[in-house]
């Protein structure tokens, strides 16, 4: 995997997790679930490791990871209370 491919992967994941956050906030859990599968597909390449990046590409990767983490927090802010209420209702 080249540095350009690494950045492209993280950029795709950042865009997709942004869309996932929007879907979660809109209550569109069906779209959220479908995008979750797509996100897993995009990130599968990282499971085998990615090359270390230097200088500007490294900083871009860090920025993208921060964006992905912020999107993840936004998704969890919506879905975790929903999951907890679902669990509590069954007990």
At CATH level 2, the architecture is Up-down Bundle
Name the beta content range: under 5%
Number of strands: 0
- Per DSSP, the total helix count is 3
Describe this structure in words.
- With 91 residues, the chain is mostly helical.
- It has one domain (3-90): Flagellar protein flit (Methane Monooxygenase Hydroxylase, Chain G, domain 1).
- Helix content is 81%, strand content 0%.
- It is built from three helices and no strands.
- Helix 1 (3-25) runs antiparallel to helix 2 and helix 1 runs parallel beside helix 3.
- The longest helix is centred in the last third of the chain and has 36 residues, at 55-90.
- The radius of gyration is 15 Å and the shape is elongated.
- It starts with a helix and ends with a helix.
- 15% of the residues are buried.
What key attributes describe this structure?
about 90 residues, mainly alpha
Strand-helix topology:
Elements: H1 3-25, H2 29-43, H3 55-90
Can I get a quick summary?
By secondary structure, the chain is mainly alpha-helical.
């Amino acid at each position: 995997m080249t540095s350009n491919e690494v950045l492209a992967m993280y950029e795709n994941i950042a865009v997709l997790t942004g869309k996932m956050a929007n879907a979660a906030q809109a209550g569109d859990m069906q779209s959220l679930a479908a995008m979750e599968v797509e996100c897993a597909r995009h990130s599968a390449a990282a499971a085998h490791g990615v090359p270390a990046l230097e200088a500007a590409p490294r900083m871009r990767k860090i920025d993208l990871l921060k964006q992905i983490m912020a999107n993840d927090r936004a998704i969890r802010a919506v879905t975790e209370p929903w999951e907890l209420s679902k669990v509590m209702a069954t007990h």
